[in-house]
Automatic annotation (TrEMBL):
Keywords: Hydrolase, Metal-binding, Metalloprotease, Protease, Zinc. InterPro entries: Mito/Outer_Membr_Metalloprot, Peptidase_M48, TPR-like_helical_dom_sf. One of its GO terms (molecular function) is metallopeptidase activity. Residues 47-238 form the Peptidase M48 domain. This is M48 family metalloprotease. It comes from Chelativorans composti. Its EC number is 3.4.24.-. Its cofactor is Zn(2+). It comes from the Bacteria.
């Protein structure tokens, strides 16, 4: 191997190792990885309600920021682009809305402060430092070998790795500073919206206790975030002197939060999970979890009776109606399911996530097999996808509906959309070409097919 190719090879290995370590400590966490996204109209509407006043306080109410739910049982949240990703574990573990609102305020502070952009600049600077130190290390090794100085020759790799370590520590120190800044900005947003920062302190206290119970001993200089106890010490005085420190979440909001946790518990942690969370064994949250668990166990008749009791208690709750539609679909009663979904759509109004219920309504109409209902399904599916253009399953149902109606060109285009939004761009282009052959040239659908054909994904 020539010296030049050897240098390139060592540079590649060093850079990969460096970036891998950064990913492990959180400098480029799951933001750059594929994450398992969960879609649920009830949860999305509630979290959107939590974050809306915070975005307004940060001056970001018109910036198109959205919150995305990640199927992960850990207590975590992060930002990427214009999206805030929240783990389902955070929602399940947070006992009050205020705890999650504090988490969201912190992530909004990262967005408002432009921390992502500055982190990329710091990363580039750190990479440059690592590369320079690596070249110095190679140079020392080559020089030592040329003059026969064995000790100096052996020092080369140490110089290179030492430079990478310095670069990594500098980057981590920068991140810790940004985290402290975001914590303080979050308290400011909470004060502006007349909400307590108590939930943030409770979150950090939970993290500290979890670390202690796990017997985790960490070097604070190896972390991308301040240790929880340090964060509490930095914030406690600010939080406690706020005039809103003792302010409680409104009871109706707390109930919605508990219903959300009950749903997550039933879907992600099993039928007994809700009983471990809620002390009140007769309240609506535990009943909701029981109805969902009964549905998941494949007993739609009993699940239907249980959800009907919940609807009697809260007749205007759109998500109980949505759940009723899901149960009726499992019972193979699509016409009745469609009626429940239609009621849920009407009750949800313009809430975030209502497009998901519209897609479910369209799916139920499609399942009836009645041509007239299938035509209604097309209308409802297109309306839902208009609100949720990235919802892959909706395009699949729309393709089926068009196929049942004999509109092959539109079915091919819907399949192209489904593959496109799933990231299978070559498949999407193939279906778009097939759709164009059957669509009227220059029509809106033909032009959309051409857009898919012309699309060039960005290289990372």
């Amino acid at each position: 191997m020539s010296l030049q190719s050897f240098a390139r090879s060592r540079f590649s290995r060093l850079l990969v190792t460096f970036l891998t370590v950064l990913a492990l400590v959180g400098a480029t966490p799951a933001r750059a990885q594929r994450v398992n996204i969960v879609r649920d109209a009830e949860i999305e509407a509630l979290v959107a309600e939590y974050v809306r006043p915070i975005l307004q306080a940060a001056g970001l109410s018109r910036s198109g920021i959205e919150v995305v739910l990640v199927n992960d049982n850990s207590f975590n949240a992060f930002v990427a682009g214009r999206r805030i990703f929240v783990h389902s574990g955070a929602l399940l573990q947070a006992e009050t809305p205020n705890e999650i609102i504090g988490v969201l305020a912190h992530e909004v502070a990262h967005l408002a402060g432009g921390h992502q952009h500055r982190l990329r600049q710091q990363l580039e600077s750190a990479q440059t430092m690592a590369v320079v130190s690596m070249l110095l290390g190679i140079g020392a090794g080559v020089a030592g070998a040329a003059v026969g100085a064995e000790g100096l020759g052996q020092a080369g790799p140490g110089l290179a790795l030492g430079g990478a370590e310095i670069a990594r520590r500098n980057l981590l120190a920068y991140q810790r500073t940004e985290e402290i800044t975001a914590d303080r900005a979050a308290i400011d947003y909470l004060n502006k919206t007349k909400q307590s920062g108590h939930g943030m302190l409770k979150t950090f206290d939970r993290m500290s206790r979890d670390m202690a119970l796990a017997g985790v001993r960490v070097d604070p200089y190896q972390l991308s975030h301040p240790v929880p106890r340090e964060r509490i010490a930095n914030l406690e005085e600010l939080v406690r002197k706020s005039p809103y420190f003792d302010r409680q979440d409104p009871p109706q909001l707390q109930l919605r939060h508990d219903l959300m946790r009950a749903k997550l518990a039933a879907y992600t942690a099993g039928p007994a999970a809700a009983a471990r969370i809620f002390r009140d064994r007769s309240g609506l949250p535990i009943q909701y979890a029981d109805a969902i668990s009964t549905y998941l166990r494949g007993n739609p008749r009993d699940a239907l009776a249980k959800i009907d009791r919940l609807i009697a208690a809260q007749p205007r709750n759109p998500y109980f109606r949505e759940m009723r539609g899901e149960i009726l679909m499992k019972a193979n009663r699509p016409a009745e399911a469609a009626k429940s979904f239609a009621e849920a759509v009407k009750m949800a109004g313009n809430s975030v996530g209502v497009g998901l219920i519209q897609v479910a309504h369209g799916q139920a109409l499609l399942a009836t097999g009645d041509p007239q209902q299938i035509r209604r399904a097309v209308t409802e599916l297109k309306a839902g996808l208009g609100r949720e253009p990235e919802y892959v399953n909706g395009y699949r149902f729309l393709a089926q509906a068009y196929g049942r109606l004999g509109d092959v060109g539109a079915a091919e285009l819907a399949t192209a959309e489904e593959r496109f939004h799933a990231g299978a761009y070559q498949d999407a282009k193939s279906f778009a070409l097939r759709a164009q052959a059957k669509l009227k040239r220059g029509s809106p659908d033909w032009i959309r097919a051409q857009d898919i054909i012309n699309f060039k994904p960005q290289r990372r």
